[in-house]
Amino acid sequence: MGRGKIEIKKIENSTNRQVTYSKRRNGIIKKAKELTVLCDAKISLLMLSSTRKFHEYTSPNTTQKKMIDQYQRTLGVDIWSTHYERMQENLKRLKEINNKLRREIRQRTGEDMSGLNLLELCHLQENISESLAEIRERKYHVIKTQTDTFRKKVKNLEEQHGNLVLDLEAKSEDPKYGVVENEGEYNSAMAFANGAHNLYAFRLQSLHPNLQNGGEFGSRNLHLA
């Protein structure tokens, strides 16, 4: 059964479209290679898919530039000059944009305002006020974030402190241990947020007679914030 005729129109399915492009691209390049060998022709192909993938083929012993130069000589056109002119126009436009932005920056700092009329000055004042409002909002957001982080740290430290106190009270009630106070000087400091708090030192000493003088476990020091 013969192959049906395919209607020439855009393939809507992107996957099918890409598959068809890949197959037919390879077919075109194959035909170009055959023409180069059979007819001693110089061929240059440039292909750009809908997915922005670039493919090219140039006959052996030549380059794209040589082909384009020969094309220009044959048709009597100058592609490079036209391209250069477009680049110059684009450069001029970018310079104007750059100069305008620089002038706006100077005006926002109170400079280069001699040529502004009343309407332009009011517009500049509006822009500066909006910028200040955005900066102020951002500043308050940063302050709030830092404050929330500080509060979380304080809460965690308070929980740790409470757990240590509960642990100390539990061990103090154990008949095997006793709290020895005024056992030397225990002074320390802990970096706590932006301030420092004193640490109170207690030494839990075993009341077991065999552990009084450096027995199996000895004494234990516990520091509480």
Task: Explain what you see.
The chain has 225 residues and is α+β, with helices and mostly antiparallel strands. 55% of the residues lie in helices and 15% in strands. It is built from 4 helices and 7 strands, in the order αββαααβββββ. It has helices at 14-39, 64-75, 79-108, 118-172; strands at 44-48, 54-58, 177-180, 189-192, 195-198, 200-206, 220-224. It has a 3-stranded antiparallel β-sheet with strand order 3-6-7, covered by helices on one side. A hairpin with a 2-residue loop joins β4 and β5. The chain is flat. The termini are far apart. Residues 179-208 and 211-225 have low confidence and may be disordered. It comes from Nicotiana tabacum (Common tobacco). This is Agamous-like MADS-box protein TM6.
